[in-house]
């Protein structure tokens, strides 16, 4: 799909590149993508992938939403929301000041509650609470270190990464994951360390070099779990295989996708049920099915992805974040297969379930853009959705 005006991602990339006084050649020297691809994206001949846009945003040192146009909350409001998190992440190597108001157990419970809020897609509420939790846990970890405190701090850093990614701040997510590794090492918790490698690898999902790096990161996570046989470790191993399937799908390696989906399915059967208590991974057979569909979508096997999507039935207990993500992915698949009415229906359903997450999800914008270009007459519902995502 080619954009017909100057308000598309490629045009915004071109504008920001010029503001940075870079030529196209100069920018491609900073990103793992070719000059030809950049040129096609900027002129609107090719749609930019999420990974491409994130790479450009990092290279230009700007918020990714400047490039996607998803700044409907407003730059100032977004910055104000994440700035306290950024400040809390910088406390890790400073001497603690002030007094503690909560015990280690209370802080661990608070960290778990914020993680739950993110899964329920209450992003602003979670972002408001998180800096204080990180500050107190950092203080406590230095003053009276325990395994529980370090684990809670590592979990809080992971939550900071999740919030940053969902709001379009990949640079802040990277910092948070670095801090997560620092805390997980002090907690001597291999499962947390492995999850951190899984999270890092999700950034590297396209292109030969980045795919190789993604594989190395996840394989290092597997190495951390050597000798671990607990249900927790099995669930984390399964999630690592799902991460490898995502990396392989973006590299269009069908054989590797099948290998890792199969390995994850075997582990899910050993774990039994949905392991929702394991670091909020909710690893299980349903999670495997969702990733298999996602892999087909990433490889542009839309007919196969649609068949898989129609077989997936999410129970009422499904995490809101997962349900909304599935609905957006299904809308993209339906848009690509010409099912425009059902695609719009699922976008509306995703918006109703998780408005914050859905608004900022790149798939939402891709689906809405495709529907607008395909429509002979744009229905009011689609017009409202387009305005809502900033088109």
TrEMBL record:
Bias (Basic and acidic residues): 1-10
Ranges annotated as biased composition (Basic residues): 11-21
What CDD domains does the record tag this protein with? HTH_XRE
Q: Which residues form the HTH cro/C1-type domain?
A: 13-67
Where is the segment annotated Disordered? Answer: 1-21
Query: Origin, by domain of life?
Result: Bacteria
- Pfam families in the record, alphabetically? HTH_31 (PF13560)
InterPro entries the record matches: Cro/C1-type_HTH, Lambda_DNA-bd_dom_sf
The source organism is Streptomyces ramulosus
Q: What is this protein called?
A: Helix-turn-helix domain-containing protein
């Amino acid at each position: 799909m080619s954009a017909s005006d100057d308000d598309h991602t490629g045009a915004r990339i071109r504008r920001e590149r010029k503001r940075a006084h870079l030529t196209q050649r100069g920018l491609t020297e900073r990103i793992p993508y070719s000059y030809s691809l950049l040129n096609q994206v900027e002129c609107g001949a090719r749609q930019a992938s999420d990974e491409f846009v994130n790479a450009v945003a990092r290279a230009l040192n700007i918020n990714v939403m400047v490039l996607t146009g998803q700044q409907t909350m407003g730059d100032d409001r977004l910055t104000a929301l994440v700035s306290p998190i950024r400040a809390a992440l910088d406390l890790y190597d400073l001497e603690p000041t002030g007094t503690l108001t909560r015990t280690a157990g209370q802080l661990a419970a608070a960290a778990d509650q914020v993680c739950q809020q993110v899964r329920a897609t209450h992003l602003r509420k979670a972002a408001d609470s998180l800096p204080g939790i990180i500050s107190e846990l950092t203080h406590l970890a230095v003053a009276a270190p325990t395994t529980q405190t370090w684990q809670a701090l590592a979990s809080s850093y992971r939550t900071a990464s999740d919030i940053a990614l969902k709001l379009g701040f990949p640079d802040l997510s990277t910092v948070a994951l670095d801090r997560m590794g620092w805390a997980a090492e002090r907690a001597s918790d291999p499962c947390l360390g492995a999850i951190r490698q899984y999270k890092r690898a999700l950034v590297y999902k396209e292109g030969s070099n980045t795919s190789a790096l993604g594989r190395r990161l996840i394989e290092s996570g597997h190495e951390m779990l050597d000798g671990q046989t607990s249900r927790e470790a099995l669930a984390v191993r399964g999630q690592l295989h799902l991460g490898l399937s995502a990396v392989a799908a973006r590299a269009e390696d069908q054989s590797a996708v099948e290998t890792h989906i199969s390995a994850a399915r075997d582990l899910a059967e050993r774990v039994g049920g949905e392991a929702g208590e394991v670091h909020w991974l909710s690893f299980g057979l349903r999670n495997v099915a969702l990733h298999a569909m996602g892999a087909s979508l990433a490889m542009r096997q839309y007919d196969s992805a649609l068949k898989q999507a129609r077989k997936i039935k999410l129970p009422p207990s499904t995490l809101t974040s997962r349900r909304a993500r599935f609905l957006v992915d299904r809308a993209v698949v339906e848009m690509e297969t010409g099912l425009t009415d059902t695609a719009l229906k699922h976008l509306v359903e995703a918006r109703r379930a998780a408005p914050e997450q859905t608004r900022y999800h790149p798939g939402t914008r891709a689906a809405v853009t495709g529907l607008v270009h395909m429509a002979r007459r744009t229905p009011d519902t689609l017009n409202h959705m387009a305005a809502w995502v900033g088109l």
